[in-house]
Amino acid sequence: MKSYLKITNKMVENYVHQYGDRNPLHEGAVKIVPGNLITDFIEKCCINITEANPQHFSIKFIKPMYANEKVMIEIHAAKFYVKRVCQEKTLLLACGSWR
After folding, report:
1. How many Å apart are CA 33 and CA 76, to the nearest integer?
2. What is the pLDDT of residues 20-50, one digit of tens each?
């Protein structure tokens, strides 16, 4: 299964305000998306597939995801991959598993 996602600057701002995240990486003109925000979206994709909450969730971040970037979440069985999509090319940003 493939899902596409774009987390906007406003979504990052709302998230860091709601959770009191003061990491400077999540501020400024070029915002890095908080890992927990990405994880929330992946978890929702997993729930849509299994119709149950994952009991175990593991993720490895390889490269940062920036606000307003289009990413693809690929889910194969109990593994997932988050990839940056740019002009027909993809770059692995994170990968992991769930059950």
Report:
1. 24
2. 988 999 988 889 999 999 998 888 887 777 7
- DSSP result, 35-95: HHHHHHHHHHHHHHHHSS--S-EEEEE-S--BTT-EEEEEEETTEEEEEEEETTEEEEEEE
d(CA 10, CA 16): 10
Q: What single letter denotes the amino acid at residue 23? A: N
pLDDT tens, residue by residue, 54-69: 778 899 999 999 999 9
Global pTM value? 0.85
Q: Rounded to whole angstroms, how far apart are CA atoms 10 and 43?
A: 21
Q: What is the pLDDT averaged over residues 4-30?
A: 92
Phi-psi category of residue 87: left, alpha or beta, with phi > 0 → left and psi -120 to 50 → alpha: left
Which H/E stretch holds residue 9?
helix 9-19
Which residues are registered as beta bridge partners of 6?
Answer: 70
